[in-house]
């Protein structure tokens, strides 16, 4: 195993990509400590230490503590994810131009990506102004200079930070390893783990804590974490193989086809993207409501969109996860296109007629698999909250199932990318014996 891991650094291109990714992550961590001008981060840190954070604690968890420090990366990458969701929804024949671009291949994807970037800047600017004004209304003195130019500087700084993070993520995707946006979220969550471990230790073994009870809680929490990791790996690796038979055909003097293969359909083909999408949409109304924090309606939104405290928020969160799981799965795998490709190449599923019957069969299989994956994602994201509350952990410990799910899912996808690069270059991988 160790020897096979060493193969990673024998491939020059792979080695360069890994070092480039690590360099980007170092830049990301440095930016998490550069404060926004004209603000007092100590007030925000004091508020979060007292547990008054809700969904903002999740933003802090995914930004690697940048939100708590109110650094230039305080808004994180969430505005970009929100923009990506909205653009993808608009491609579903909502706006004809977007639907046309989605079908134009690489050229169309570039146009959609360019629009997503511009839309990200707009959303980041709106959220930045909302956070600055909302926090200063509730926590007097947070903004040192309350002039219009001061708020404009804060909003532009936060927007520039999010735009820079978006660019860093794209650089990782192009020149590094794995999906850049997912890697940045992964790095943010992992960066907070040592702090959370310290908070858990203090909660279980503090001055007024009983040693035996603390040990029981620690063992129970460790078991929950291990079960989440094992379940995530098991479901993420689960595949349904649909057999496909290709008919023999003669082209010139050569005979093609005649072989048997299969279509691998994953139980959770969407990965952790639905969870990230759902979180982004849950956070967006809270950020907008922070414009009028202290108003009954705004406070209702802030409380009820916090799935860690509100039953309504938890229900909306589960519904969004299930919906995005179906949406993202069928965006990645189109049964109609898959059926047409099989028919053109002389392929068929044994016992199923090509064409419409094949499309119906593939859709039915995908619906069942996607439902299983969606239920799994929902349970892993929601159930650990009850265990955390049962263990009496502080509310600012954001290492629930959602965070673990993202960490394990991104780690698996990155390892698969490295594995495929090794095998492509005729090196033995490290994920197989």
TrEMBL record:
What cellular-component terms does GO give this entry?
A: plasma membrane
Q: What is this protein called?
A: Protein translocase subunit SecY
Q: Which family does it belong to?
A: Belongs to the SecY/SEC61-alpha family.
Write out the entry's keywords from A to Z: Cell membrane, Membrane, Protein transport, Translocation, Transmembrane, Transmembrane helix, Transport
Q: What is its main location?
A: membrane
An example GO biological process term is: protein targeting
The protein's role, per its UniProt record:
The central subunit of the protein translocation channel SecYEG. Consists of two halves formed by TMs 1-5 and 6-10. These two domains form a lateral gate at the front which open onto the bilayer between TMs 2 and 7, and are clamped together by SecE at the back. The channel is closed by both a pore ring composed of hydrophobic SecY resides and a short helix (helix 2A) on the extracellular side of the membrane which forms a plug. The plug probably moves laterally to allow the channel to open. The ring and the pore may move independently.
Assembly information from the UniProt record: Component of the Sec protein translocase complex. Heterotrimer consisting of SecY, SecE and SecG subunits. The heterotrimers can form oligomers, although 1 heterotrimer is thought to be able to translocate proteins. Interacts with the ribosome. Interacts with SecDF, and other proteins may be involved. Interacts with SecA.
Its membrane topology is listed as: Multi-pass membrane protein
Q: Where are the transmembrane segments?
A: 18-36, 72-95, 115-136, 148-168, 180-197, 209-235, 269-292, 312-333, 369-391, 397-415
Cellular localisation: Cell membrane; Membrane
């Amino acid at each position: 195993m160790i020897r096979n891991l060493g193969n990673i650094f024998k491939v020059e291109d792979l080695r360069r990509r890994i070092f480039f990714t690590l360099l980007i992550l170092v830049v990301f961590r440095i930016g998490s400590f550069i404060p926004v001008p004209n603000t007092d981060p100590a007030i925000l840190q004091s508020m979060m230490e007292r547990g008054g954070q809700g969904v903002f604690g999740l933003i802090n968890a995914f930004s690697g503590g940048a939100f708590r420090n109110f650094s230039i990366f305080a808004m994180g990458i969430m505005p970009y994810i929100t923009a990506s969701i909205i653009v993808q929804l608009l491609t579903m024949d909502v706006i004809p131009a977007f639907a046309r671009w989605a079908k134009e291949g690489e050229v169309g994807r570039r146009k959609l990506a360019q629009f997503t970037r511009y839309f990200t800047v707009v959303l980041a600017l709106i959220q930045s102004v909302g956070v600055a004004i909302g926090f200063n209304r509730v926590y007097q003195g947070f903004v040192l200079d309350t002039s219009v130019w001061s708020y404009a500087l804060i909003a532009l700084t936060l927007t520039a930070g999010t735009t820079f993070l978006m660019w860093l993520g794209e650089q990782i995707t192009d020149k590094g390893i794995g999906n850049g946006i997912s890697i940045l979220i992964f790095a943010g969550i992992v960066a907070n783990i040592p702090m959370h471990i310290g908070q858990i230790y203090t909660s279980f073994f503090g001055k007024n804590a009983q040693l035996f009870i603390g040990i029981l809680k620690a063992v129970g929490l460790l078991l929950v974490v291990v079960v989440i990791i094992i379940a995530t790996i098991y479901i993420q690796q689960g595949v349904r193989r649909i057999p496909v038979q290709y008919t023999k055909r003669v082209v010139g003097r050569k005979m093609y086809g005649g072989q048997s293969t299969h279509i691998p359909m994953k139980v959770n083909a969407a990965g952790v993207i639905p969870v990230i999408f759902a979180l982004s949409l849950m956070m967006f109304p809270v950020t907008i409501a922070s414009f009028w924090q202290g108003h009954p309606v705004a406070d209702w939104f802030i409380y009820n969109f916090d799935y860690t405290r509100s039953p309504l928020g938890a229900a909306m969160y589960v519904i969004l996860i299930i919906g995005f799981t179906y949406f993202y799965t069928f965006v990645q795998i189109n049964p109609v296109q898959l059926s047409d490709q099989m028919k053109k190449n002389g392929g068929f599923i044994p016992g199923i007629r090509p064409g419409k019957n094949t499309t119906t069969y593939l859709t039915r299989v995908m619906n069942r698999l996607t439902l299983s994956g969606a239920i799994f994602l929902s349970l892993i994201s929601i159930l650990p909250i009850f265990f955390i509350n049962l263990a009496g952990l502080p509310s600012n410990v954001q290492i629930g199932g959602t965070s673990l799910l993202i960490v394990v899912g991104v780690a698996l996808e990155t390892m698969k990318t490295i594995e495929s690069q090794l095998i492509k270059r005729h090196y033995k991988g490290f994920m197989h014996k």
